[in-house]
DNA sequence: GACCAGGCACATC
DNA sequence: GATGTGCATGGT
């Protein structure tokens, strides 16, 4: 089923090119800024940082909170994200001398634990950094992943982040490129068809729905 | 004007 | 341990 879903989505939407051609550091910053926010709002914030020449760990860390907050305002939650970004940057500079190369050389699970220990970095942000900035094979789970699979009856309602991640990682070849595309495709189909209220007409996964249509939990 | 977006931490029961 | 709430902008 995991493979079939991937193939259907890939056939219809093609490669998504998530975070291509940007630096790993931009990806890391973006991973924090995009928390519960539309990517469009993040692009502008990253553009501001680029214009100011601040897309560098030490320079960004040295930026005054007020100034940084203003530059990332468009991404929303800008006061909180200023703090979260700085917490992450502090960890990067203090433990890895500000070097992403050094950070990503760390064993995967040890690095994941260090990211999760940063206040403001939860499982999805940590895994996005590992996968999209570090090209490390960590499957990223998000709200769409959960909705798509729960509504089709492929997982139980109530499945938590770690269980769902394990479901993907144990059922797929351990491959960062595959994980990257798969997650991006799920966001794509989710955005089009699997928001808080599902719109299954024209969805490439509609044929795979259970009898009677999508299952609905009483939350989201 | 309500609703939603590629979450997370913290308070409270 | 489960459930609720604050955080904030910008697009539909």
Write the layout of secondary structure elements.
Elements: H1 2-13, H2 24-33, H3 39-51, H4 57-62, H5 65-71, H6 78-96, H7 100-104, H8 108-116, H9 123-133, H10 143-151, H11 161-171, H12 176-193
Helix pairs in contact: 1-12, 2-3, 2-9, 5-6, 8-9, 10-12
The structure holds a DNA duplex (13 and 12 nucleotides).
CATH level-4 homologous superfamily of the largest domain: Hypothetical protein, domain 2
CATH class of the largest domain: Mainly Alpha
Determine the CATH topology of the largest domain.
Endonuclease III, domain 1
CATH architecture of the largest domain: Orthogonal Bundle
Low-confidence region ranges? none
Distinct helical segment count: 12
Helix-strand pattern, N to C?
Answer: HHHHHHHHHHHH
CA-based shape: globular
Separation, N- and C-terminal Cα atoms: 24 Å
Q: Please state the structural category.
A: mainly alpha
Largest sheet: none
